[in-house]
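hi! just following up on the protien thing from before. the input was this:
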Amino acid sequence: MRIRVGAVFIPVLNLIDSITWYSECFCLQLIDNWGAGASLSFKEGEALIALIQVEEIRPLQFQVNINQKNVYFHFETNDINETIDFLKEKGVEIISYMDHGLMKECFIHDPSGNQIAIYCEKEESPFYKHATGKTSW
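and the predicted 3d structure came back as:
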């Protein structure tokens, strides 16, 4: 038996604008626009991004404790600095950047106001060679 994440669903206020933004900022390829939503794929990887048109955005994060919130998902990159530079060239504001020792991450907002986390594991991290069997990019 094989189980994996098939898609991450992201609510958006304007589907057409969001398709363009996610395609340009994350190099995603449109698979299907079915009107109420759209599926996009990464050039590498199996999980899809499904953008769903909504009337109201709810936060894509949860409260861990009084001082900390956490996102439900994050995108992985092999080079956080290159990714940050690329996003800045696209006019995306980097909300925050953190070096957690074994990983680095940054946060941005999409056009609908969703907070998106992007991270990069360092080779010495125990998660670097996670369940996918990834040994290098």
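Residues 15-26 form the longest helix (12 residues).
Helices lie at 15-26, 80-89.
cheers
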